Fold this protein.
Amino acid sequence: MTGDRGAADAPRLLHHWPRDPSDPNGGGNSRTAAAAQTGYAVINFNTALQTVRCVESLLACAPPPAWVMVLDNASAAADLDYVVRHLAGGRHTEVRLYRSDRNLGFAAGSNFLIGCLLAEPGCRYVGLLNNDAVARPCLLDELLGALQRHGGACGLAGGRVHRLFAPDEVDTLGISLYRSLMPADRRDLKDTYLGPTGGCCVMTRDFIDDLQLSTGYVFDERFFCYCEDTDLVLRANLLGYRPAYVDELVALHEGQASSGTGYNAFIAYHGLRNTLWMHVKLVPLSWFVRYGPLLALAHLLSVARHTLAGHPGLMFRVYRDGLRQLPVFWRERRELKPVWRAAPAQLRGRITGRFYREGYWRLVVGQLRGSHRAAPGTRP
């Protein structure tokens, strides 16, 4: 696994709320039994209210998971105190709270919690849910049902997620990869499903074991956050898995609770830099030959948009820091190529036919027009 932590750096267990000792933790139908073998990972960073709300929604699932592991990612003292005072376990669910003294990011934090769950011999399924999301009661029933219907060939599953404060609006239907080779949250069922987002998914233990053995890690900790889930699902596809999707509303998502709303340089930087790394590490050369001009256009549009929005330095940092690491990711690409089980031509059908997500061109044109109108010396 990348980014190994020393013992002094490792998160520590703060609190443990055991499940009811009289709970048989099993029995019932096959999905109830599967839920008794399922653990969920939730990460908190200065969003205590959302984290407690998220855990409570998982405990209210029918059936609920057997374990919920929470990592506090170096939150402020008051935020951590709120989590400690308000977090609780359930009759059927054991809850543990870990604390890291530094912010590990989503990738390394998730890897840590996944390791904690896999240390439980009875854990066969691992779920991830963003801490600012609220699980609907059907979450486990739907996602575990998808895994059981598709068998070991899918490895991981996701479902429909809407906006918490606008429940009729789609937040994400998983991840799509477009002809520009740029990934994005899937908002339209017409777009091809590559796999679930890291904010709402369930993975089998066998898939995780295979992913670690074949590629060395679950999430790439060098990414810190953003695009780390696309990197994971693209590796899953290259290994021959076909992630499952259920078109049932399984969660509601607040969105950017820990990173803020509106223009966010942190999100833009990590999303663009990490996409560049993912392309070098994983995208087949035949895809570059076929879609390279569209990828170049996507980069030119990104440079234009961020520059006209008054953030030219952000794109400089993206390419400076991204290009510095390209030799490392190119070497890893050569090491990973022998393990892929799916041919690039076979996977090309999992690329959505349009340049990028619907509405993108209207957004770009609107931003460019707005920048032009705002420029000194120009006429409306």
Notes: The chain is about 40% helix and 20% strand. The longest strand covers residues 244-253.
